[in-house]
């Protein structure tokens, strides 16, 4: 019985690590690709060649990625805490 | 004295290099120092790792600032018809962004390291950590803004044909 609980814990940990790794990969790629591509695309198609506004757009997009990362990490933390609480209630009974 | 000497691009290219190199040094310091804290925290509270990676992401953004300014300055460089004034402006822009990125990365590194270690024991430190990190990050943002303003002045440089 305890081996089954241990095995389920290990698979749950592995699943959590897999999804966390995927999120980290997505954010790393986004931080590498989005600012520089938004600089060039906005300079050519949005601001009509004005490089200053394009650089501000790139800096703003980097900030947006940061905000998205903070939101994702806080939401994931809240979800983990909510998942932990029912299990603890079951244990204490 | 010519307005467009042949050694003028030296200063412009120096600005490109300074912006990228110095902001990357700051970002590397921030990433490594915060990573030390995360490695210490991850040993006994692995569920906090995702939230503790915020200083590392902010250090990456400092390097993005340096990259954007480098690309911006490099877009205005010319082999001929490039005045010494434009070269100095580009050098100043690159140095402004680079050194402020160095300062911001330094701050983010120390704050990230200490705050993620404190976050293990007191969860209310998280909001304070994010606020302090944001204040450290806007140092790099100020350098970016000054670099942008300086670079926009380089277009009014005299032409020599």
From TrEMBL, chain A:
InterPro entries assigned to the protein according to its UniProt record, in alphabetical order: Vma21
Gene Ontology biological process terms from the UniProt entry: vacuolar proton-transporting V-type ATPase complex assembly
Regions that span the bilayer: 21-41, 53-75
Superkingdom of origin organism: Eukaryota
Name the record gives this protein: Vacuolar ATPase assembly integral membrane protein VMA21
Keyword check for Translocase: no
Pfam families found in the cross-reference section: VMA21
GO cellular component, one term: cytoplasmic vesicle
TrEMBL record, chain B:
Membrane-spanning residues: 7-29, 49-77, 84-106, 126-149
Topology with respect to the bilayer: Multi-pass membrane protein
Homology family: Belongs to the V-ATPase proteolipid subunit family.
Signal peptide bounds: none
Classification via CDD domains: ATP-synt_Vo_c_ATP6C_rpt1 (cd18175), ATP-synt_Vo_c_ATP6C_rpt2 (cd18176)
Species whose genome carries this gene: Obba rivulosa
Name the record gives this protein: V-type proton ATPase proteolipid subunit
Any one of the GO CC terms: vacuolar membrane
A Pfam match: ATP-synt_C
Keyword terms, alphabetized: Hydrogen ion transport, Ion transport, Membrane, Transmembrane, Transmembrane helix, Transport, Vacuole
Purpose: Proton-conducting pore forming subunit of the V0 complex of vacuolar(H+)-ATPase (V-ATPase), a multisubunit enzyme composed of a peripheral complex (V1) that hydrolyzes ATP and a membrane integral complex (V0) that translocates protons. V-ATPase is responsible for acidifying and maintaining the pH of intracellular compartments. Proton-conducting pore forming of the V0 complex of vacuolar(H+)-ATPase (V-ATPase), a multisubunit enzyme composed of a peripheral complex (V1) that hydrolyzes ATP and a membrane integral complex (V0) that translocates protons. V-ATPase is responsible for acidifying and maintaining the pH of intracellular compartments.
An annotated Gene Ontology molecular function: proton-transporting ATPase activity, rotational mechanism
Subunit-level organization: V-ATPase is a heteromultimeric enzyme composed of a peripheral catalytic V1 complex (components A to H) attached to an integral membrane V0 proton pore complex (components: a, c, c', c'', d, e, f and VOA1). The decameric c-ring forms the proton-conducting pore, and is composed of eight proteolipid subunits c, one subunit c' and one subunit c''.
Location(s) in or outside the cell: Vacuole membrane
């Amino acid at each position: 019985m305890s081996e089954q609980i241990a095995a389920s814990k290990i698979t749950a940990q592995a699943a959590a690590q897999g999804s966390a790794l995927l999120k980290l990969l997505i954010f790393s790629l986004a931080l590498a690709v989005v600012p520089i591509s938004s600089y060039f695309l906005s300079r050519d198609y949005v601001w009509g060649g004005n490089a200053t506004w394009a650089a501000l757009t790139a800096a703003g997009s980097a900030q947006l990625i940061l905000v998205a990362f903070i939101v994702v990490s806080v939401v994931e933390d809240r979800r983990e805490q909510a998942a932990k609480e029912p299990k603890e209630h079951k244990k204490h009974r | 004295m010519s307005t467009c000497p042949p050694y003028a691009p030296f200063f412009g290219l120096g600005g490109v290099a300074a912006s990228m190199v110095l902001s990357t040094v700051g970002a590397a310091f921030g990433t490594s120092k915060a990573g030390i804290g995360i490695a210490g925290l991850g040993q006994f509270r692995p569920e906090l790792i995702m939230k503790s990676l915020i200083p590392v992401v902010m250090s990456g953004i400092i390097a993005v600032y340096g990259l954007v300014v480098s690309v911006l300055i490099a877009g205005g460089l010319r082999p001929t018809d490039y005045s010494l004034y434009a070269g100095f402006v580009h050098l100043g822009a690159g140095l402004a962004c680079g050194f402020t990125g160095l300062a911001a990365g330094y701050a983010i590194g120390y704050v990230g390291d200490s705050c993620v270690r404190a976050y293990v024991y007191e969860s209310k430190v998280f909001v304070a950590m994010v606020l302090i990190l944001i204040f450290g990050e806007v140092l790099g943002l100020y350098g970016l803004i000054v670099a942008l303003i300086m670079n926009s002045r380089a277009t009014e440089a005299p032409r020599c044909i």
